[in-house]
Amino acid sequence: MPRLSPVLIGATLAVAALALANQTGLPRTLGAHPFWATQVLWIGAPIGLLLALLATLRGHGRLGLLGGIALSAAAYGTATYGRIAFAASYAEDALAGQLWYFGWIALATGAALALASLPAQIYSRQIQTTHRPISKTRETAQK
Q1: Least packed by Cβ within 10 Å: which of 66, 79, 107, 128?
Q2: Closest CA relative to residue 48, chosen from 111, 128, 121
Q3: Residue 84: exposed, middle, or buried by beta-carbon count in 10 A (0-12, 13-18, 19+)?
Q4: What three-state secondary structure class fits 30?
Q5: Which is nearest to 83 in space by CA: 39, 42, 29?
Q6: Among 16-20, 29-33, 83-87, 119-123, which stretch is predicted with the lowest mean pLDDT?
Q7: Radius of gyration of the chain (CA)
């Protein structure tokens, strides 16, 4: 079972990064509506942290990292399409508005998932490079 400290470090990193993004107005700059730019971060972040915790504890840290990156990219595309379609319809297209809103929630989820999975992935790489398998050790000892 993996150690819990990389998970806690990742959760702290993700929350700090999303708080910094919120304080600097990054979601509004990238196209989120000013009314709910903060709200989407704090809805998506706990979902991403929970997914990262589950992925890391199950030993799928790389899947969490890559899945978070892929989810963020797809969600940003969806949110951008929703924003453009919503504005083009003069706020009449409710589906486009929902794509815009839920796309930003998915983007925050993916960002939290990727950021929270990153330290666990780095930690597992360090373990793999510092510990040689037993078979390699025996081969070296026999030579």
Answers
A1: 128
A2: 111
A3: middle
A4: helix
A5: 29
A6: 119-123
A7: 19
C-alpha atoms less than 13 angstroms from C-alpha of 60 in its C-beta half-sphere: 12
Element (H, E) at 139: helix 134-142
Q: What DSSP line would sit under 73-91, residue for residue?
A: HHHHHHHHHHHHHHHHTTT
On whether the CB atoms of residues 96 and 89 are closer than 8 A, the answer is yes
What is the pTM (predicted TM-score) of this model? 0.84
Which one-letter DSSP state was computed for residue 133? -
> What is the pLDDT averaged over residues 45-51?
96
Written as one string, the DSSP assignment of 42-72 is HHHHHHHHHHHHHHHHTT-HHHHHHHHHHHH
Residue 24 and residue 134: Cα distance in Å, rounded?
Answer: 50
Mean predicted confidence (pLDDT) in 56-73? 91
Which pair of tokens denotes residue 83? 């924003």
